[in-house]
Specification:
It contains 17 helices and 2 strands. The chain is mainly α and 393 residues long. Strands 1-2 form a two-stranded antiparallel sheet.
Length: 393
């Protein structure tokens, strides 16, 4: 049985991945809701669809492949929608989501993405992962200035437990943080929090060529470039061979099914997936998928709880989220940085990938992770075809 073989490290990794996923995107989501002028019922439905969709995708992909394949909604896609929405009827916006889903499915069926993913060497995948994780590590240690007592308590518990039983380190550190918050009364839950289960609100889609081209096509491009490509690279950096085509088909089908309820685009996760794919989740790479399955279960629970569960997550001090995320990713970050620079011939492309990724540059609403990987690939494959200039004797 699956649940009889679950370890505390699976539970803590899944929970931390969930915290990182929600806290890293909730502000962008609510900006989107405000831009689209959604009603309260529609907002609740969209949160329900996003949680259930990410959970279903995570569970199906992880159990199918026996790999820690965590799904998420497209946060860059949400930012793109909020920035480019021009007032089209909400039914046409839903139609654009369905176009994005269809393109994801077609990309998976064609197998093109699986072929392209084989061109990414492990050094560049690790450089990309290190660059993606760097802001989380930095934010963790910045709390020494803003919340030193909490950081020292959680950090000390992490170090002590890691020296004794590494797989319990994150679990114990998170427990220390929650106990500290409970006794310091730093978590404030809004008085108007609703504890009722959320209900779906179906919006019948309609299809407009202008809206599909203006919103649906860019949503697909951003989701592929800023989410799926880094997500594939993260899996490869841990030594996994992700079933790319299957992942795109699953996320595309779930997007199509939940689009009328607000599930605008689902994809492979990168940052939160690295928490479930790292050694903190399990020393055995073959059983780390249990952490991503549990994260999927937590996604569904949060989706059903909707506003109440999100309110609980947001009630936690930002410093606690930053600390636990940074500690959970610390070992993965150090390993990925080491692996990216290990081979002399690949060091420069990997370093360029890392530096551009942490720079935060963005062009055409596509984030730095894609441009860092693209620059690294060009440099890597370009230098491999260069021939040394013969020396005169």
């Amino acid at each position: 049985m699956f649940f009889t073989s679950v370890k505390p490290s699976h539970i803590s990794s899944g929970a931390v991945a969930l915290l990182v996923s929600y806290t890293g995107s909730i502000a962008v989501l609510f900006q989107l809701f405000d831009t689209l002028n959604l009603s309260q019922n529609q907002i609740s439905s969209w949160m329900l669809a996003l949680g259930i969709g990410a959970g279903i995708c995570s569970i199906i992909m992880s159990l199918w492949a026996r790999q820690p394949l965590l799904a998420a909604w497209s946060t860059p896609g949400a930012a793109l929608l909020a920035a480019t929405y021009t007032g089209a009827p909400i039914a046409e916006v839903i139609g654009a989501f369905i176009l994005c889903a269809a393109l994801l499915i077609l990309t998976g069926l064609s197998g093109l993405m699986a072929i392209l993913s084989k061109l990414i060497p492990s050094s560049l995948a690790n450089g990309l992962l290190a660059g993606v994780l760097f802001p989380f590590i930095l934010a963790c240690f910045n709390t020494l200035q803003t919340a030193p007592t909490l950081m020292l308590a959680m950090g000390a518990s992490f170090v002590v437990t890691a020296s004794w039983k590494p797989q319990l380190a994150i679990f114990v550190s998170l427990l220390f943080g929650l106990v500290y918050v409970a006794f310091s009364n730093t978590a404030v839950l809004p008085d108007d929090t609703s504890w009722a289960l959320e209900r779906p609100d179906f919006i019948t889609p309609s299809f407009s060529l202008a809206t599909m081209i203006g919103l649906g096509l860019p949503l697909y491009i951003v989701t592929m470039c800023s989410q799926n490509i880094p997500g594939i690279a993260v899996q490869q950096s841990f030594g996994y061979k992700p079933p790319v085509s299957m992942s795109l088909i699953v996320t595309g089908l779930v997007t199509a099914g939940l689009a009328p309820f607000g599930g605008f685009a689902f994809n492979l996760a990168a940052i939160s997936a690295s928490i479930c794919a790292g050694p903190e989740a399990d020393t055995d790479p073959n059983t780390r998928y249990r952490a991503s399955v549990l994260a999927g279960v937590f996604y569904i629970c949060v989706g059903l709880g909707g506003a109440a569960v999100v309110a609980i997550v947001l009630a936690l001090p930002p410093a606690l989220i930053a600390i636990i995320a940074g500690l959970a990713l610390l070992n993965t970050f150090s390993n990925s940085l080491f692996q990216s620079l290990q081979h002399t011939k690949e060091r420069l492309p990997a370093l360029i990938t890392f530096l551009i990724t942490i720079s935060g540059v963005s062009f055409w609403d596509i984030g730095a992770a894609f441009w860092g990987l693209l620059a690294g690939l060009i440099l890597y494959h370009g230098t491999n075809h260069l021939r040394p200039i013969p020396q005169k004797t």
